[in-house]
Amino acid sequence: MLTHQRRFLPSTSALAAFDSVAKLGSFSAAANELALTQGAISRQIGLLEDQLGVKLFERTNRGVELTAIGRTYAKGIGDALATIRTLSLEAMATRDDTHLRLAILPTFGTRWLMPRIPDFLSKNPAIIMDFATRIGQFDFEGSGLDAAIHIGEPNWPGTDCQFLMHEMVAPVCSPAFLAANPVKRPEDLLAKPLFDMASRPRAWEHWFASLGISEGRGGGMRFEQFSNVVQACHAGLGIALVPTFLIEPELASGQLVRAWDHEVKSASAYYLVRPLSKMAYGPASTFAAWILEQARTFSERRPTSG
């Protein structure tokens, strides 16, 4: 009976090779992805086809294509391997209760969080932190992550979102750009190149509304990452509406200046997000208590008017 069962249980090496070829469409690309030789990939596929007694790929001049049976098998095997990876990550996560795997926003992580991390580690020396960069919502289930710092709204399905802080935003640009494109009144900004950020899609509308300005504006560049929009400002390409607490060094040095001196509270806010399945995980709970206190202290010490 056991021998009969094994016939229908191919090796994970063969399944990984098949999954990679199915996704990438060539043996050479799969070899690169799995750090194997093309010959090794070909042998694994051959063994799998022999074991199953079916042809999974058609060899063509352009590479390989899945057969009809291969397409059905690929979908099932892809899902099965994803499940195995998830279960493996969860098993690894339960090896001990000393690791904290945290997703961070790139600029918030480097400029606000990292300078404070030594305090957390000094108070919790047994906790080992791993960091991953994430922008926007993602699926916690297959990520191996315990928590995330999120900018936006507390609407992440399957999670608990704890408010950390608001942000104050103001329009900034390079001194050279402002000299060449003077702003005499806030309405003048409507005709300037204004940058948009993916994480704050209606930020400009909110800022203009706070001044009673409802006229439409022209289009502008759109950026995914905060660091890129700041670089575009440095390059003199236009004006960005950014959280002032994240560009304090640039404002202090004069590398960036306010295009109009008016700050508003952003419609977006920062949250600590934890999957509901990990709310009882010790290191994440410890970190939550610490960062909530850090955020509270920071918010009390900065101006909130504007």
From TrEMBL:
Domain of life: Bacteria
Keywords noted in UniProt: DNA-binding, Transcription, Transcription regulation
Residues annotated as domain HTH lysR-type: 10-67
GO molecular function: DNA binding
Keyword Ion transport: no
SUPFAM superfamilies found in the cross-reference section: Periplasmic binding protein-like II, Winged helix' DNA-binding domain
Keyword Transcription: yes
Family: Belongs to the LysR transcriptional regulatory family.
Name of this chain's protein: DNA-binding transcriptional LysR family regulator
Taxonomic source organism: Peteryoungia aggregata LMG 23059
Lineage: Bacteria, Pseudomonadati, Pseudomonadota, Alphaproteobacteria, Hyphomicrobiales
